[in-house]
Every structure is written in structure tokens, then in C-alpha cells.
Fold this protein.
Amino acid sequence: MPAHKASLSENASCGLTTVRGSASRVVLLGRQGAGKGTQAERLAAHFDVPRISTGDMFRAGADTGAELNGDLSRSMKAGELMPDVVVVEMVRARLSHTDAIETGFVMEGFPRNVAQAEALDSMLAPDGLDVAVELVVPSDLVRMRLASRRVCVDCGANYSVAQPPRSGWTCDVCGGQVVSRQDDNQAAIDRRLALYEEQSAPLIEWYRRTGRLAAVDGTGNPDTVSQNLLATVADHHARAQPNVGGLNQGGKS
């Protein structure tokens, strides 16, 4: 992939879009299968900001260039993470859109390591990230969730074997086909969880040191998790610097 041989540090220091303004900026962390997609969608709808999912963008091949699609598809099927420089480039492009600049975002799937977190801070300077929330779910439970997970091929709505669509495997939202994700095979699941464990500890500690980490139990009913997540984000934002836009002001009642 010759177009992406520049180092992450080079991209972080020059060329990254500066995203500014009094906006809400939240990152959800957690193991694959922790419920980040569902909770990010709910949180984004509540605060009326875009949900940004690097996983969804990669699966759709968005903003990556046609020449990358084959390599990305093979990496995803194997459960490998995308190279930092590729992910940072894609996130930078998405954060340059008007909606993210003016209202902020709820992001999941990024950052996955400290280098990516530092690049995100560079993009968001001078206001920075409001809070990084870790959805805490034990590995044995996420394995069960991932094995039963199903997704709409058209709109990305999430289902499971235990909570299928109302009519066969046809999406309730858009009528698309609901299938297993290609990267939810057992080998890929094992690989993704191993990579998360390897990279998550330094990342979570980095956010803890910078005073922007919160944790929410992700094992309960999704509605309960959503309520706890909303309360955690609102509390963190209330204690943030006054020049950062208020989640409560921008949120829906």
C-alpha cells in the first residue's frame, strides 16, 4: 500500500484536520461485543450528534480508496486491526465534515492504542475530547455475544440469535438482509479479543492519567446500560472546562 507509507507521527504533526468549536466529543471503549455500536447509536441520537464507527466505515469501504478494499477485507476476515496510519487518515477525513465540527460526535472503534489517541487529540486541539467511556464486559460474555451477533447488510442495524428481526432475517428498520458479519468467525473473534487485551491496558491508563476516563458496566439490560452511560457522560461533562459545549444543553429531553 504505497500511498500509506508515511509514519503516524508525520500524519499527526502535519495535515490532520483541526476540529474546533464548542461541541460534544465522546469516545466509547470496550471489547468487541461489549455493545459499543448499540450504545453509541443511542448516545448519538440523544445528544443529536453523528455516530462515527471506524468498523462500519471499513466494512463499507468508505473513504479508503478502491485499491485498499481487497487488503482491508482480508485483514478484517482474519481479525487483524488496520494500520494506524490508515485509520487516522480515515478518521481525520470524517472529522472534517461539517456535522462533526459543529456538533461533535460519539465515536466507537477508535482510538485503539495510545498513538491513535494522541493523533485524535491533535485533531481536536485546542478543545480536546470530553470523555472516553469504557464499557466493561467480561471476555466470556462478549464471546457469546459475538457468536450470536447478526447485522443488516444495508443499514447496519444490530440483532442477535436471541433478539432477531420480527420477520425472518429481514431488517425491521430498512428491510435489508440480516446476516452474520464476515469477521465474526471464531478465529477472528479470538484474534480481535487478543489484540484488544494487548493494546487496551496502556490506552485506558493513558486516558485515566489525563482525567478523561470513565467506566460503565455493560453487562446489564441495554436500557439500563444506556441510562448509566448517559448519566456518566453528563456528569463528566458537567465537571469539564466551561469553554467546552454542554451535553445537557445540546441533548434531547
In short: Residues 1-22, 62-68, 243-253 have pLDDT under 50 and may be disordered. The two ends are 47 Å apart (CA to CA).
